[in-house]
Write a structure and sequence with these properties.
about 325 residues, mainly beta, Methylamine Dehydrogenase, Chain H, five-stranded mixed beta sheet, 29 strands, about 0% helix
């Protein structure tokens, strides 16, 4: 370890009784929850904020759910799109015209036309594609390949895989800096983070597991100013904070009993949202102090995983893998 970092431990035994539901402290309020497909894993919101696309690992589909103007989810799933085997992630192009679903069970990516809501192409990817990301202002998308220990680069104009980059063990996702120059890949199996120079598609640094202190990473979020990254480790309840100027871990937050899984950043209110897979909650943390500002329960047995904010940042949607549901919250 090159420098000393802060370590904090928060115990969530009885914590839900001590935090006033976020209607006051951060504005979160659970609005409604609807049933979706089998074992939903991830979701993306269209740029116009009108529809949520979510992948269902258990039935090999993508559900398209309508979002009302007030943010309430309708019980009307407007489309059920059959994709490949065991889809794990879905991302939407910057212009909203295409959605891409990674099919871990068959090493492909399904391309969906969001106007017709039909699969128009299937792309061969690396082994076991998992989490993906759209590069800002670019024709390229990237998927982490959990089985192949690599990252696939896909050209969205030709629908071809143009590069594959070796990273750590069992990468499950990645995020790109706002300037589009680097990608940070969280490797769930090895617990480390690979830093990729996107101009050369090469790994230029590895932030070791000894530095991150986590086990079983499920999300990596980069702040809009490109200064920090938050890595969520579900297996041992850790969030590691990385300074992206130095690529060093500057803090470890221990959230005992939470199981930090997915996340979202609300830059306007300086909040990091965290889904608690273990305690079925959504937490709001102050991004500077990492103080827990609020906690909302999604209900017993929901098993929340990934989440997304609407483009205006007003609303949040969370997929509940165990409950086969989608929850809407207003911030």
């Amino acid at each position: 370890m090159k420098n000393q970092f802060k370590q904090r431990v928060l115990f969530f035994v009885g914590f839900m009784m001590m935090v006033f539901i976020s209607m006051v402290s951060s504005g979160q309020l659970l609005m409604n929850t609807i049933s979706v497909g089998n074992a939903p894993k991830d979701l993306a919101i269209t740029p116009d904020g009108q529809f949520a696309y979510l992948v269902n690992v258990g039935d090999d589909t993508v559900n398209v759910v309508e979002i009302q103007q007030n943010g309430i989810l309708t019980n009307n799933i407007v489309a059920i799109i059959e994709v490949g085997s065991r889809p794990h992630d879905v991302i939407i192009s910057e212009d909203g015209s295409l959605a891409f679903a990674s099919n871990r069970g068959e090493d492909t990516v399904s391309v969906i036309d969001t106007q017709t809501r039909q699969v128009i192409h299937t792309i061969t990817s690396g082994a076991g594609p998992y989490g993906g990301v759209v590069a800002p202002g670019s024709q390229f998308i990237y998927f982490a390949n959990a089985t192949g220990n690599s990252v696939t680069v896909i050209d969205t104009e030709s629908f071809l895989m143009v590069a594959e980059i070796s990273v750590g063990t069992k990468p499950e996702g990645l995020s790109i800096t706002p300037d589009g120059t680097r990608a940070y890949v969280h490797n769930s199996g090895s617990g480390d983070v690979s830093v990729i120079d996107l101009s050369t598609n090469t790994v230029i640094h590895t932030i070791t597991n000894q530095e991150t202190g986590g086990e079983g990473s499920e999300a990596l979020l980069i702040t809009p100013d490109g200064q920090r990254a938050f890595v969520h480790y579900v297996k041992n309840d850790v969030i590691a904070v990385i300074d992206l100027n130095t690529n060093e871990v500057i803090e470890q937050l221990k959230l005992e009993g939470v199981g930090p899984y997915g996340g979202a950043i609300d830059a306007e209110r300086n909040l990091l949202y965290v889904s608690g897979f273990t305690n079925n909650s959504v937490l709001a943390l102050n991004m500077n102090t990492l103080e827990v500002m609020s906690s909302v329960s999604l209900g017993e047995g929901q098993g929340p995983q990934h989440m997304a904010l609407t483009p205006d940042g007003r609303l949040m949607y969370v997929v509940n893998n165990s409950g086969n549901t989608l929850s809407a919250l207003i911030r």
